[in-house]
Protein backbone atom coordinates (compact mmCIF):
# COMPACT_ATOMS: atom_id res chain seq x y z
CA UNK A 1 0.00 0.00 0.00
CA UNK A 2 1.45 3.37 -1.01
CA UNK A 3 2.18 5.98 1.60
CA UNK A 4 0.00 9.07 1.58
CA UNK A 5 2.89 11.33 0.57
CA UNK A 6 3.74 9.24 -2.50
CA UNK A 7 1.40 11.40 -4.58
CA UNK A 8 0.05 14.92 -4.36
CA UNK A 9 -3.59 15.62 -3.59
CA UNK A 10 -4.26 16.44 -7.24
CA UNK A 11 -2.54 13.24 -8.38
CA UNK A 12 -4.61 11.12 -5.99
CA UNK A 13 -7.76 12.85 -7.21
CA UNK A 14 -6.94 12.09 -10.83
CA UNK A 15 -5.98 8.50 -10.03
CA UNK A 16 -9.21 7.96 -8.11
CA UNK A 17 -11.40 9.41 -10.85
CA UNK A 18 -9.69 7.36 -13.55
CA UNK A 19 -10.02 4.19 -11.46
CA UNK A 20 -13.69 4.90 -10.68
CA UNK A 21 -14.46 5.51 -14.35
CA UNK A 22 -12.84 2.21 -15.30
CA UNK A 23 -14.86 0.34 -12.67
CA UNK A 24 -18.11 1.99 -13.79
CA UNK A 25 -17.43 1.31 -17.46
CA UNK A 26 -16.89 -2.40 -16.82
CA UNK A 27 -19.15 -3.14 -13.84
CA UNK A 28 -21.72 -0.35 -13.85
CA UNK A 29 -22.47 2.09 -11.07
CA UNK A 30 -23.52 -0.70 -8.70
CA UNK A 31 -20.04 -2.19 -8.94
CA UNK A 32 -18.34 0.99 -7.79
CA UNK A 33 -17.55 1.68 -4.13
CA UNK A 34 -15.13 3.88 -2.23
CA UNK A 35 -13.33 0.79 -0.97
CA UNK A 36 -12.94 -0.61 -4.48
CA UNK A 37 -11.64 2.71 -5.84
CA UNK A 38 -9.18 3.09 -2.96
CA UNK A 39 -7.90 -0.45 -3.48
CA UNK A 40 -7.45 0.18 -7.21
CA UNK A 41 -5.12 3.13 -6.57
CA UNK A 42 -3.30 1.58 -3.61
CA UNK A 43 -4.58 3.94 -0.91
CA UNK A 44 -6.98 3.66 2.00
CA UNK A 45 -10.58 4.84 1.98
CA UNK A 46 -9.54 7.42 4.55
CA UNK A 47 -7.06 8.92 2.10
CA UNK A 48 -9.74 8.97 -0.58
CA UNK A 49 -11.95 11.01 1.71
CA UNK A 50 -9.20 13.54 2.24
CA UNK A 51 -9.62 14.36 -1.44
CA UNK A 52 -13.41 13.97 -1.77
CA UNK A 53 -15.97 14.93 0.85
CA UNK A 54 -17.81 11.63 0.52
CA UNK A 55 -18.95 9.11 -2.09
CA UNK A 56 -21.52 11.55 -3.49
CA UNK A 57 -18.78 14.11 -4.06
CA UNK A 58 -16.69 11.52 -5.89
CA UNK A 59 -19.66 10.63 -8.11
CA UNK A 60 -20.34 14.31 -8.86
CA UNK A 61 -16.76 14.69 -10.08
CA UNK A 62 -17.10 11.55 -12.21
CA UNK A 63 -20.33 12.85 -13.70
CA UNK A 64 -18.78 16.24 -14.36
CA UNK A 65 -16.04 14.57 -16.38
CA UNK A 66 -18.66 12.60 -18.29
CA UNK A 67 -20.52 15.80 -19.14
CA UNK A 68 -17.25 17.40 -20.26
CA UNK A 69 -16.53 14.43 -22.48
CA UNK A 70 -20.03 14.49 -23.97
CA UNK A 71 -19.86 18.25 -24.53
CA UNK A 72 -16.50 17.98 -26.28
CA UNK A 73 -17.74 15.13 -28.48
CA UNK A 74 -20.83 17.08 -29.51
CA UNK A 75 -18.73 20.14 -30.37
CA UNK A 76 -16.20 18.09 -32.29
CA UNK A 77 -18.76 16.22 -34.39
CA UNK A 78 -20.85 19.33 -34.94
CA UNK A 79 -17.80 21.14 -36.35
CA UNK A 80 -17.94 18.89 -39.40
CA UNK A 81 -21.13 20.62 -40.58
CA UNK A 82 -21.61 24.16 -41.86
CA UNK A 83 -25.38 24.06 -42.40
CA UNK A 84 -27.18 25.27 -39.24
CA UNK A 85 -29.82 22.54 -39.40
CA UNK A 86 -27.23 19.81 -39.91
CA UNK A 87 -25.25 21.18 -36.96
CA UNK A 88 -28.29 21.02 -34.71
CA UNK A 89 -29.33 17.55 -35.81
CA UNK A 90 -25.75 16.36 -35.25
CA UNK A 91 -26.05 17.22 -31.56
CA UNK A 92 -28.85 14.71 -31.21
CA UNK A 93 -26.97 12.02 -33.09
CA UNK A 94 -23.83 12.62 -31.02
CA UNK A 95 -25.82 12.38 -27.81
CA UNK A 96 -27.33 9.06 -28.85
CA UNK A 97 -23.95 7.72 -29.93
CA UNK A 98 -22.30 8.67 -26.63
CA UNK A 99 -25.04 6.99 -24.59
CA UNK A 100 -24.68 3.86 -26.72
CA UNK A 101 -20.90 3.73 -26.35
CA UNK A 102 -20.73 4.64 -22.66
CA UNK A 103 -24.07 3.49 -21.21
CA UNK A 104 -22.90 3.06 -17.61
CA UNK A 105 -21.27 6.48 -17.38
CA UNK A 106 -24.23 8.10 -19.15
CA UNK A 107 -26.73 6.41 -16.83
CA UNK A 108 -24.83 7.46 -13.70
CA UNK A 109 -25.19 11.13 -14.61
CA UNK A 110 -28.97 10.86 -14.48
CA UNK A 111 -29.46 8.09 -11.93
CA UNK A 112 -27.33 9.52 -9.14
CA UNK A 113 -29.36 11.23 -6.45
CA UNK A 114 -27.96 13.41 -3.69
CA UNK A 115 -29.35 13.06 -0.15
CA UNK A 116 -32.69 14.77 0.42
CA UNK A 117 -32.31 18.50 0.86
CA UNK A 118 -28.86 18.64 -0.74
CA UNK A 119 -28.37 20.48 -4.02
CA UNK A 120 -25.60 20.02 -6.59
CA UNK A 121 -22.78 22.55 -6.21
CA UNK A 122 -22.60 25.53 -8.55
CA UNK A 123 -19.63 24.12 -10.46
CA UNK A 124 -21.66 21.04 -11.38
CA UNK A 125 -24.72 23.06 -12.32
CA UNK A 126 -22.52 25.00 -14.73
CA UNK A 127 -21.55 21.74 -16.46
CA UNK A 128 -25.22 20.93 -17.01
CA UNK A 129 -26.08 24.48 -18.08
CA UNK A 130 -23.50 24.55 -20.84
CA UNK A 131 -25.00 21.40 -22.36
CA UNK A 132 -28.31 23.23 -22.81
CA UNK A 133 -26.46 26.36 -23.91
CA UNK A 134 -24.92 24.37 -26.75
CA UNK A 135 -28.36 23.39 -28.02
CA UNK A 136 -29.69 26.92 -27.59
CA UNK A 137 -26.76 28.40 -29.51
CA UNK A 138 -27.37 25.92 -32.33
CA UNK A 139 -31.06 26.84 -32.44
CA UNK A 140 -30.57 30.60 -32.62
CA UNK A 141 -29.51 30.81 -36.31
CA UNK A 142 -32.64 28.87 -37.26
CA UNK A 143 -35.10 30.78 -35.12
CA UNK A 144 -34.41 34.48 -35.56
CA UNK A 145 -38.12 35.20 -35.07
CA UNK A 146 -38.21 33.45 -31.69
CA UNK A 147 -37.52 34.99 -28.29
CA UNK A 148 -34.72 33.86 -26.00
CA UNK A 149 -37.26 32.22 -23.69
CA UNK A 150 -38.83 30.32 -26.59
CA UNK A 151 -35.43 29.09 -27.75
CA UNK A 152 -34.57 28.03 -24.21
CA UNK A 153 -37.81 26.06 -23.93
CA UNK A 154 -37.31 24.48 -27.36
CA UNK A 155 -33.79 23.39 -26.39
CA UNK A 156 -35.18 21.74 -23.26
CA UNK A 157 -37.92 20.03 -25.28
CA UNK A 158 -35.47 18.67 -27.84
CA UNK A 159 -33.09 17.44 -25.15
CA UNK A 160 -35.93 15.77 -23.25
CA UNK A 161 -37.11 13.96 -26.37
CA UNK A 162 -33.67 12.70 -27.36
CA UNK A 163 -32.93 11.75 -23.76
CA UNK A 164 -36.14 9.73 -23.66
CA UNK A 165 -35.08 7.84 -26.76
CA UNK A 166 -31.74 7.08 -25.09
CA UNK A 167 -33.47 5.65 -22.01
CA UNK A 168 -35.75 3.44 -24.10
CA UNK A 169 -32.88 2.30 -26.31
CA UNK A 170 -30.55 1.37 -23.45
CA UNK A 171 -33.35 -0.46 -21.63
CA UNK A 172 -34.15 -2.33 -24.88
CA UNK A 173 -37.71 -1.04 -24.85
CA UNK A 174 -37.49 0.25 -28.41
CA UNK A 175 -36.98 -3.32 -29.62
CA UNK A 176 -40.51 -4.13 -28.46
CA UNK A 177 -41.85 -1.24 -30.53
CA UNK A 178 -40.09 -2.57 -33.61
CA UNK A 179 -37.73 0.40 -34.00
CA UNK A 180 -34.85 -0.60 -36.28
CA UNK A 181 -32.67 2.52 -36.01
CA UNK A 182 -32.33 4.72 -32.95
CA UNK A 183 -30.56 7.35 -35.04
CA UNK A 184 -33.42 7.43 -37.57
CA UNK A 185 -35.92 7.82 -34.74
CA UNK A 186 -33.86 10.67 -33.28
CA UNK A 187 -33.69 12.39 -36.65
CA UNK A 188 -37.44 12.05 -37.09
CA UNK A 189 -38.18 13.46 -33.64
CA UNK A 190 -35.90 16.46 -34.04
CA UNK A 191 -36.76 17.29 -37.65
CA UNK A 192 -40.52 17.15 -37.06
CA UNK A 193 -40.26 19.29 -33.92
CA UNK A 194 -38.06 21.81 -35.69
CA UNK A 195 -40.39 21.93 -38.66
CA UNK A 196 -43.06 23.29 -36.37
CA UNK A 197 -40.78 25.48 -34.29
CA UNK A 198 -38.80 27.09 -37.11
CA UNK A 199 -41.46 26.82 -39.79
CA UNK A 200 -39.34 25.20 -42.48
CA UNK A 201 -39.24 21.85 -44.24
CA UNK A 202 -36.13 19.68 -43.84
UniProtKB/TrEMBL annotation:
UniProt DNA-binding residue ranges: 33-52
Keyword hit for 4Fe-4S: no
The HTH tetR-type domain, residue ranges: 10-70
SUPFAM superfamilies from the UniProt entry: Homeodomain-like, Tetracyclin repressor-like, C-terminal domain
Alphabetical keyword list: DNA-binding, Transcription, Transcription regulation
Matching Pfam families: TetR_C_33, TetR_N
Gene Ontology molecular function, alphabetical: DNA-binding transcription factor activity; transcription cis-regulatory region binding
Superkingdom per UniProt: Bacteria
Entry keyword Transcription: yes
Protein name: TetR/AcrR family transcriptional regulator
Amino acid sequence: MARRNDHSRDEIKEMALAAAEKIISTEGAKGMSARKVAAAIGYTVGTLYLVFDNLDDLILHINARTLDRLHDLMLEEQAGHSDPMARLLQLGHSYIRFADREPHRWELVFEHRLPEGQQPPDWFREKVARMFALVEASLEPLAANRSADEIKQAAAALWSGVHGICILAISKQLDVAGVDSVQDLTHSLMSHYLKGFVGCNF
